[in-house]
Structures are given as structure tokens and as C-alpha cells.
Amino acid sequence: MPDGRDPLEGPTEKCGVVGVSLADRDAARPLYYSLYALQHRGQESAGIVTHDGFQQHDHVEMGLVGDAFDEDDIESLRGSAGIGHVRYPTAGSVDKSCAQPFTVSFKSGALGLSHNGNLVNAEEVRDQLAGKGHAFTSDGDTEVIAHDLARNLLEADLVRAVKRTMGRIHGSYSLTIMHDDTVLGARDPEGNRPLCIGKLDDGYVVASESAAIDTLDGELVRDVKPGELVVLRPDGEGFDSYQLFERENTAHCFFEHVYFARPDSVIDDNLVYEVRRELGRKLWDESGIDTDVVMPVPDSGRAFASGYAEAAQESGATVEFAEGMMKNRYVGRTFIMPTQDERERAVRLKLNPIKSTVEGKTVTLIDDSIVRGTTSTQLVQLLKDCGAAEVHMRIGAPPIVAPCYMGINMATREELIAADKSVEEIREAISADSLSYLSKDAVAEALDTDRLDLCMGCVTGEYPYDIDGEETDREVERPVVADAASADD
Length: 489
Ligand code: AMP
Prior knowledge:
- The chain is of the alpha+beta class.
- It folds into two domains: about 15-250, Aminohydrolase, N-terminal nucleophile (Ntn) domain (Glutamine Phosphoribosylpyrophosphate, subunit 1, domain 1, 4-Layer Sandwich), CATH 3.60.20; about 270-450, Rossmann fold, CATH 3.40.50.2020.
- β15 and β16 (about 270) form a beta hairpin.
- The termini are far apart.
- Adenosine monophosphate binds next to α13.
């Protein structure tokens, strides 16, 4: 692990965004609580920008939400409108220059922008804007969106300006935007990353996940639709919707349901916890094996294992569900492991099997995914060291064979264990007695969605966006990055 990251944390994930507009209460505190609720989507930096009707206030810091803000910071963020962001970097460098919300002040006002996702044509847009005199301070794609929008706002009203920018950028984005004290939420035309709208007693919120709305005692209104822009009214009285783009098919990221999102969030009408349980049930149907115990990898495999065990028991299998591995929550991802020996010890620090639940038993170990194979290799070994007679691995997603360009920092092709290995070769590499993954069709069925409405790039190697050097899974129109002024309104 060259960056000293805990091997059990696996690869990295991306960002969480939120925007709040209230009648006459400061937005900073609800934004702060929302960021806590979205912390799982990014731990690198956290930030809030508010507007009090006259001026913008911002506080953006590296680190976890709890460390990034103190009481004085929250107090200083005046105004009833604001946006927030938690970041795990996937594009741009790992320092404060890329921390968000990104802000720009320009002739027609102050802009703030929070972005979850990843553009695949950022360089093209950046080069074109740079040619027109825009100076960039970061290498991130969010600054590109901010500059483009600022430029369009010089010539068009807010909704038209957003439409022009959305017509030029290509890739995955769920955005919360603040123009002076107006808060907006926008989702890319494929709806790749989640974004939803919630109602509070005295205002509205847009957030990556509904768990943030629950935290504010709000009510989930609905998902922001792919290609939709919602504008929260500054008086907190409601929101206006503009369907700016419409595609024949969406490209929701299935991996949000498998791994990223909180199980208690509802995304695109599906409760993530139920989807994971259903994936587990289908895993039993497709490749169930009647062992003494079935056990989740904590915490990622838990809902899958409970669905799997339930389906097993319904079908008459005698398998027992056991939480046979305990996680030490205090081993953070910054845990430093200078030598290989110590890295291996980190597994024992982080996860400890309850010996009596595995000793002499045949065990099915369930996880959501295998990326590099680090976790499964180490856990199979650990269970065998604790006396398990057999360890069978079941995975609630198809093999990950290709990288994600849409904002999930998974790994490169060279690092992905399934990129060039068959399932049998992977089984051998992780020393499991058997190994099965879930089929792609089962994923679409569990999500009650047509396969073509999902982004499955990481398991098919074919993407819903036009990415240099990669195949697409549909007809994709990559925008011609023309002068903004000539864009079709
Ligand atoms: P690996 O050890 O590289 O095979 O990664 C697989 C483990 O990492 C599984 O336990 C997953 O729950 C978890 N995981 C999968 N995708 C990610 C991701 N993008 N970021 C962090 N962890 C992940």
C-alpha cells in the first residue's frame, strides 16, 4: 500500500453533495448534520458555503466533518441558503485546492459548486475555456464546470446557463449549485450518481442520499430525475423543476446499491438495504451451497448474507447465519503499516473471527465485491487459521473487470484481480474452496431495472459515456465543445 491506506478499506470512493434553502433560519447547521450523514461518501475534505443575501461565507477543510468544523466555523456561516460537500478525490490532486464546494465570484454574482461524479471531457472544456482567458487554480473537473457556468451566466439566465453547461460537459455528475442565495440541484442526463429532494418543516434540501434528509427529520420527496434541474425557492416554500435533457436510457450506477450508498438510503425508488438482501437471495438461488455457517464480511457483506441465509433456510438448507467476525471500529484508514508483515497483522487488528463459530465448520463467507482480492485472500486465510474446515466465498456482484471512470476510484485494470483471471483462477488465488459471483441479470432484476438503464461499465468493460480508448454500451452523443454562446437553448 504505497499510500499507507488500510488494505481492508480497499479502493476509494467519491463524494457526497447537499444543498439547503430555508425560510429564515441559518442553513449551516442542517448542512453540517447532512455532511455527517454523507461522511461514508468521502473522508478527504469537507466544506460548506452559505449566502446571507448579501455575501457568501465559506469554510472548507481537509479531514472528516467532525474535525473540519468547530462551533465558531458553523456560527460564521450566516445565511438561510447553502451547499456542502464531502470529498474523496477521484479527479484532481489530494490537497485543499480541490476541496469543495468550489467558489467563484464574477460579474454576475457569486457561485458555489459541489460535485459528485467524474467528467470524461473535462480537459476539452478546460482547454477551450483557457483559450478564452480563464485561469484555473486546480486540476479538478469541478472547477471546469464552475468556470463554464460563470461564463454562461454572463449571457443567459440561471436555467439557460445551466442548460448550456450541461450541454457541454460529458460524464457523471450530481451537482448542488449556489448562485448568490439560490440553491440548485442538477443530475446528469444519464442519472449516474444519486441525488434526491427532501422537504423540511421550513424549507427544502437536495442531497446525494435520502439518509441525509432523514437526519434532518425531513421527508423524501423524490429523486432528482436524470437531466433535471431543480431550483429551490429562496423563501423555503418549494422548488421549481426543469427537465433540461432526456435520454432513451438512464445509466444509474449499480455499484451505489452494491457498495457505496448507505443501506438506509432510498435511491431511484429502491431501499438500498432491501436491494442488498435481494442480491443475497439471488446469490443463494444461483450458487447456494449448504455449509454449516454463512457469515458476512463486516460491514459490507452483512445485508447480502442475511438475504442469502434467509433464502437458504426457506429452501430447506440447514445453514446457520452467524456474525462470526468482529470488526474493530477504531482501526482507521490512516493506520500506518510500514512492512508487509505489519500490513498482514492489520487484518488481525481490524477483524477477529469468533473461533468457536468457525472451528471445524464449513463456512460460506459473503461479501459485496472483490476488487484487488486483498480482503478475500486475507479473510479466507484467517478463517482457515482459526480452524474452518472449508471456506466458500460468495460475492453479491459480478466480477469487476474494468475501471470506473464515473467517480468511483476502484483500481486500474492491472490491479483488478478479475481483469485477466477466470473465476477458477481467482478462487485459486484467494485459496477458497469454492467461489461464485452474482450474474449481471440478477443485479438488474434485484434493482427491478432494465440492464440498459444501469451503468455496468466496471463489470462489462462497456460504458454509457464516450470515454477515450473504451467501448460504449449504447449510442452515445459526445457533445461538441463549441463556444457556449452558440449552444442551443
Ligand atoms: P479488495 O480487497 O481490493 O478486493 O476490495 C474488496 C473490498 O473492498 C470489499 O470488502 C468491498 O466491500 C470493499 N470495496 C469495494 N469497492 C470499494 C471501493 N470503491 N472503495 C472502498 N472499498 C471498496
